[in-house]
What does this fold into?
Amino acid sequence: MATPIVPYLGTVDSHIIFDTPWMKLEHTDQPAKILHLVEKLRTYQFDGCIIFSVYSQNILATALLTYLAEIPLRTAYSRENPYQLLTHWFPDPEPLSQINHQIKRDLMLLQMLDIDPDLRRLPQLRLYRDIYPDATPSLEDWALPASYIIVNMEVSEPKRQFPSQHANELLRSLLNKGEWIIFTGQYESDYLQDCIQGISDPRFINLIGKTTLDDVLCLIERAKAVISVNTGIVHMACAYSRPTVVLYANTNPQHIPWSPRSTQIVFDIPEMHKSKNQIIKYVDKLSPEETHTIPSATEILNCLVSL
It folds into this structure.
């Protein structure tokens, strides 16, 4: 899923692409490939492995891979005692004792290994022009304004969709304030068409299905601001330190983007779309009286101004 972004990760020296059967992906039920992965990991002769996870995940399957690959140092958070699967086990305090942002959670794991990370340093992405100095992204052929706001409503899970009527009102409010809008998305859909229904302003640029990842990164790097549902675009925007407003469906709050130039507006999702994971259900019950209504266009614009 994250393969295309790898060239932009300046701190990653190498990578292995593999779809494990405990992830929500298609065509992963192939036991022979798991055994092949174990052998491949063994050939690398790694000194150690750090397994990062969210508190609602179980790391034992991944730990078993590293154990079979004979990696000498194996560490992770785990609620259950993994015994020999991990050489350095840290009982998971979340969410029963505390809840941290995902980045802080991961960095705290490093600290327990006596690795001293800088908690103030943000993840960064390399720039397109630094990776491909002689190439020209597609957007150079488009007549783009000098100043524009990216709006993205596309998300992989329907439960995280922002209501299309509210999205439409937001777009119209931005246009009424004289803003140029670039509307992004990988694929055409009825939902996205509902979001832009009846909008024909020349300052509205619809790029659904017209951009590559390279294009999107270039657009984000130059954008005045980004307004998006919780998807990859907001994390890219934070990595480029762009002012970002996240319309965040209340699913996993620990994944909220990590940046001093971002803010989020949380909204509740229908009961039928909530996770069946009992750990997540437990967290939801901690504050049952707390509700988050769908924000108005005015609320969103006020958040944008505050950045």
Summary: The CA atoms of residues 248 and 266 lie 5 Å apart. The chain has two domains: 29-111, 140-306. The mean pLDDT is 88. The first strand starts at residue 48 and ends at 51.
